[in-house]
Amino acid sequence: MSPAAQRAQSLATAACVAGTDPAAIRQLPDLTGLKNEVIIHRSHRNGYDHPVRGVGVKLVEIGYMMGTFPWELEHAIMPQDRAVLWFQGPMTGHGDLPLKTVIEIASAHQVPVIVDASAQCRPPKTSGASPRWARSLVIFSGGKDLHGPQSSGLIVGRKDLIEAVRANGSPNHALGRPMKVSKEEIIGLLTAVQLYLEIDQEGRKARDEETVARWRQALNRIPGVQAERSFPNEAGQPLPRMARPTRRRPPRQDCDQVVDLLATGEPAIIVALAGADGIFVNPMTLSPGEDQIVLDRLLETLQAA
Ligand SMILES: *Cc1c(COP(=O)(O)O)cnc(C)c1O
Q1: pLDDT at 188 (0 to 100)
Q2: How far apart are CA 14 and CA 24, in angstroms?
Q3: Residue 153 CA: which ligand 1 atom is closest?
Q4: Ligand 1, from 2, 144, 150: best to mutate by most atoms within 8 Å of Cβ?
Q5: Which atom of ligand 1 is the closest one to the Cα of 91?
Q6: Pocket of ligand 1 (CB under 6 A)
Q7: What residue owns the CA closest to ligand 1's atom 12?
Q8: pLDDT class for 303, splitting at 50, 70, 90?
């Protein structure tokens, strides 16, 4: 458990660098004499890697958007390396090695893999006891798909690495001491995880498909609108969302205006811009019945804009 996934990234990195060695834990973030490199696919670089760098490590990049060879990872793994950092999300799948290959190669060199899956759903059939996940550290945000406390995060994975995460975190005097999690957040996240495990993921997907289909059917009756189904969603989760429910034939709709009207109405509805010519509407966080509220507001807004 950590406060927010971003701090889980710092804790996981500290755990990989210092392990449970009390001297190394006390020394962080001074890395003098410690192994100080973390390998990352160049195509995975993004703003969320800051807390990893915040531990003081240097990121060593491998591969290109066009592709990465297993030998590049093999070659990059040096005695200096403490971990491989993997981002699961929209940055995944652009010329990177398969995660399975990364974990196999890294494990063969006793280098752990930190998988940032902050915005992901529980990976079907790969959670829990699966050896692939159990050989790495996997991070989930408590406030995203888990619907738990916004400022909580979850780290699961290899037992000895989890011990090292603990050793580097509060209440110990360590780099993670300021990242204390409150009792309220702990109970909140635990409850969120328990509720999440009961969710029928297939049923949820079917419900989202139904919602998107119903939205499209209703909105496509507006002349000039041709809403589409978009899959997967922006975080790469296997769930559908609706794309471009705005008028594209003249007079084209001003998407910025639509976004503003939706956000400032009652209830506020937050949608993402889809490039210059549309918006995405994602049913992911809706409770039963709210899909109709969203549809009513969309119909009203599109007709007003
Ligand atoms: C959202 C996200 C985070 C941050 O999660 P918080 O719980 O808000 O800290 C980190 N990494 C990735 C890939 C994310 O999508």
Answers
A1: 97
A2: 9
A3: 7
A4: 144
A5: 13
A6: 4-6, 48, 87, 89, 116, 118-119, 141, 143-144, 153
A7: 118
A8: confident
User: Which of 52, 99, 141 has the most ligand 1 atoms within 8 A of CB, as the residue to mutate?
Assistant: 141
- The residue with tokens 């769930």 is 239
The per-residue pLDDT for 12 is: 97
Tokens 């800051």, located at residue: 50
The residue that leads in pLDDT, 200 or 39, is 39
CA distances from 255 to 12, 174, 304 (A): 40, 48, 12
Closest by alpha carbon to 27, among 168, 200, 155, 159? 168
| CA 100 vs CA 5, 97, 107, 113: distances in Å | 22, 8, 10, 11
Q: What is the pTM of this model?
A: 0.87
Residue closest via CA to ligand 1's atom 5 equals 5
What's the 33 CA to ligand 1 centre distance in angstroms? 31
